[in-house]
Amino acid sequence: MESVSSLLGSIEDVGRDAVRGGYSRPVFSTAELDLRSWFREEAQRRGLDVETDRNGILWAWWDTETHDDAGRQGALVTGSHLDSVPGGGAFDGPLGVASALAAVDLLKKRGVQPQRALAVTVFPEEEGSRFGVACLGSRLLTGAIDADTARNLKDPDGVTIAEAARANGLNPEHFGRDDDALRRIGDFVELHVEQGRGLIDLDAPIAVGTSIIGHGRWKLAISGQGNHAGTTLMDDRADPMVAAAQVVLAIRKTAAATPEARATVGRIQPIPGGTNVIASRVDLWIDLRHPNDATTAALVESIHGQAQKAAAFEGCTAALTRESVSGTVSFDGELQRQLQLAIPGAPGLPTGAGHDAGILAAHVPSAMLYVRNPTGISHSPEEYVEGDDVDFGAVALADALERLL
Ligand code: HGY
Ligand code: MN
Ligand code: MN
Questions:
Q1: Ligand closest in space to the Cα of 123
Q2: In this structure, what DSSP letter does residue 229 have?
Q3: Span from the CA of 109 to the centroid of ligand 1 (angstroms)
Q4: How far is the CA of 206 from the centre of ligand 2 (A)?
């Protein structure tokens, strides 16, 4: 069995970001394509039969004969993603994929003969860092996003995902809900690095996911009057950057006043973005999360109203567009119970991070395992998992899969 650490070690130089630190591996970038090739090679080395489906999802099947006829139980599927946020950590996504490959090694070493098909999957664009919609691959698979809407999603350079997919051998006209693929899945289990402090505080190496709080992302475009920084008197300005600054503070204040809410503006883009230029427009993106979906909607409403007021005060206008929203999801109770039985002592843990398992949960029994991250930091180069916990996670996943197989 190749250890998870050595599997991760073999990709540790792929997509390093010298400017931001950490890794930048946007979907269909050279880095992510290299990671797809790495996955294919590692899967084939294990005798798995690898296919790419029409939505760009990779499936590595253990037992080719049975995977078409997944039979009564449906296939047992495990996996995660390989794309990253800009400047992300080494574990968010790849830990789940590498642990799944190592778990296959363990099952084979134990002489396990699967009584049902088993597949390791890789979902594209889980982070939504390039085309703006989180969990795009699993949303396409389940029909949670309209295929036309998806095809027209553009990256910051104006490239559509249809163009990027076509350049990588996919036919975007085939994007969309895939009932055959969904029908084949009996259970889905995703292992993922924990992205908060939960397991530090619980002093445990692994947890069974219980739920994912609802989350969404909105784009706010604040338009004003572009102008010269030196010749435009302060009274003569309609400066969207000033309005944007007010909005960022208002977002923080509103979320901080709402228990359990989390709101973030991590991306702001002045147009044209010159040092000696008053911006004509400022785009900013809001990531908003709350366990209660109605509260999330009310928070968006309130922030939109405050943004329009702040914009008007500066002689600007504000337009809000929704990019992607997922309601709060609880994982399958029976699957959680099976995971708890397979991993005695593993606590249940809710999370504030979105995952493909959260999208699939509306269609197939889904569950997650989280592995301790001693920094409690994620979406940052400081994200980390100790070697022992990495190995513990792979063994726990193998035990869970063996029980479910
Ligand atoms: O944003 C999230 O919650 C996940 O890491 N994609
Ligand atoms: Mn992430
Ligand atoms: Mn992730």
A1: 3
A2: T
A3: 34
A4: 18
**193 closest CA partner among 370, 339, 350, 352:** 370
Query: Domain count of the chain?
Result: 2
Helix (H, G, I), strand (E, B) or coil at 136: helix
pTM of the predicted model over 0.85 = yes
Contact partners, residue 12, CB within 8 Å, separation at least 6: 90
Could you identify the residue written with the tokens 């990709």? Answer: 11
207 and 253 belong to one structural domain: no
Per the listing, tokens 């975007």 go with 172
Closest ligand, as measured to the CA of 89 = 2
Tell me, yes or no, whether 126 and 116 share the same domain. Answer: yes
pLDDT at 58 > cutoff 60: yes
Which DSSP string corresponds to 160-189? BHHHHHHTTT--GGG-S--HHHHHHEEEEE
Ligand 3 centroid – CA 334 distance (Å): 23
User: Do 243 and 321 reside in the same domain of the chain?
Assistant: yes
Of 127, 138, 288, 373, best ligand 1 pocket probe by most atoms within 8 Å of the beta carbon? 127
**Which pLDDT belongs to residue 2?**
75
The residue segments making up the domain with residue 132 are 4-213+328-404
By the 8 A CB rule, do 352 and 132 touch? no
